[in-house]
Amino acid sequence: MKEEVQKKYLEFQLIQQQLEQLQQQHLLAQTQVTQLRVVKDALEEVQKTPLKNEVLAPLGAGVFVKTTLQENAKVLMNVGAKTAVSKPIGEARGIVEKQMTEVTAFEQDLQKAMMQFVARSQELQREMQKEADGE
């Protein structure tokens, strides 16, 4: 019987580790959706901004440069391998929305997996408690 409790405890510990990893992935997915939402909103704002208007362009890490808007109908999008292509803003927005949908679906899958692990973890806790009370 003691061996059975040890097996359940080991499974319980493994589930806890997997839950931590899923929670980290879930947090990253949430962050990515937030970033994509910001990009989508920025694309809409660029399209509305008149040409030759002064704008702040982000360089990263909270650093901006003042510049003049030369194009408000197209943007450059990174397509990988250090390659950027020109895309109409509507198409770029569609790509970003598709990415948001995909990441949101992944996020939901993570939530389902976490719920299953939590349920199994609770089940193991009850079984171990029962066996501990029975000894």
How is this structure best described in words?
The protein is an alpha+beta fold and 135 residues long. The chain has one domain (20-134): Helix Hairpins (Orthogonal Bundle), CATH 1.10.287. 69% of the residues lie in helices and 19% in strands. The strands form two sheets. It has a two-stranded antiparallel sheet with strand order 1-2. The N and C termini lie close together (9 Å). The model has no long low-confidence stretch (mean pLDDT 93).
**Helical amount:** 55-70%
Residue-averaged pLDDT: 93
CATH topology: Helix Hairpins
CATH classification class: Mainly Alpha
The arrangement of helices and strands along the chain is HEEEEH
Largest sheet, order of strands side by side? Answer: 1-2
- Give the strand content: 15-25%
Secondary-structure map:
Blueprint: H1 2-48, E1 54-60, E2 63-68, E3 74-80, E4 83-88, H2 89-134
Antiparallel strand pairs: 1-2, 3-4
Helix pairs in contact: 1-2
Quickly list its features.
alpha+beta, rod-shaped, two-stranded antiparallel ribbon, 135 residues, Helix Hairpins, two-stranded antiparallel sheet, 2 helices
Summarize the structure.
With 135 residues, the protein is α+β, with helices and mostly antiparallel strands.
